[in-house]
Description:
CATH architecture of the largest domain: 3-Layer(aba) Sandwich
Distance between the termini: 62 Å
Structural class: alpha/beta
CATH superfamily of the largest domain: Bacterial extracellular solute-binding protein, family 7
Helix content: 40-55%
Radius of gyration: 25 Å
Order of helices and strands: HHEHEHEHHEEHEHEHEEHHEHHH
Amino acid sequence: MGTELEQFGACNNEEEETVTMPRLSAAFFAALILIMGVALPVKAAETTLRISLQLPLKSHLGQNLVLFKDEVEKASEGKIEVQIYDSAQLFKDKEVPQAVGSGQIEMGVASLTRFVGEIPAVDIFYQPFLLNTEELVRAATNKDSTIRGPIDEAILKTGSRVLWWQAYGGSIMLSKGAPFKTPADVEGKKVRVFSKTLGRWVEAVGGVPTLTAGSEQYLAYQRGTVDAGMTGISGVKARKLWDVMDHITVTNNADIEFIVLVNEAFWQSLPDAQKAIIQAAADKADVTVRDDIARIEKEAYEAAEQNGMTIYRPTAEEIELWKASAKPVIDAYLAESGDLGKQLYEAALALQK
């Protein structure tokens, strides 16, 4: 904007030999500005929220952030500006918890499992087949649930506040050449995983787990770094994974959740009025993405089929074979996640009654 005004001044100076400024009326000057398309100064935002996202902006998580941005900027009348840096421009998924917690950036989106190092209990959502229906997931992720509530409190101690959760859907398995119908099909295969717990499950069925960031999946499949992988169906669509893989097995063995974080020190520095605007937008984004996930997954499955992928849905007998591999994984979780892990596991069992 400053450059444009400087350019206008330079242009006017070139005309000074024939037309002097005093001869220009205020009305003529204003009209000239409009004709030339020179923008008038706009009041700068009082607060800027930068958000790091590993997925493309066109993904449903990206669009959920756009909804948040629109709500905040409209409600604040431009006093709060939201800047979204998608596709891991600033930080990879695994770097977001530290980046937000330390104040390197105001906000960021990270998969819940990225906190497993500090809070092992968060992997409750990745215990095989424990929360494997929409009803169970909704109950577990409700803002005041006996599962989400304690997790949010634990994350706050790391320097980050959870503003809202972003539903990503159930975990599926990707393969090339043939679907994974039973655990025997995984034996000896290198499998991309996104949590330690899922890695243990892959090991339990004879596979070789490889922890790979979501943004690195495409190249991992393309280069053969891994033979197969786990992700959410919406991620297949967002990253066009049908270019490098051709089969999907709908296991729903884990529920994938992302969380939107804000640095706690930054949050506490905000005026109460701005906090209220941001939280209201976050609450709307939370409900919207949760309500949309069924439609999003349906459209993603359709897109995968249209792009040549084969969708395989295991039989009830085959699912039982997959479930049978879960016990050692759950035993390890309970042994390592402390009192909070036991509390969350019992809460998850209670939801099934």
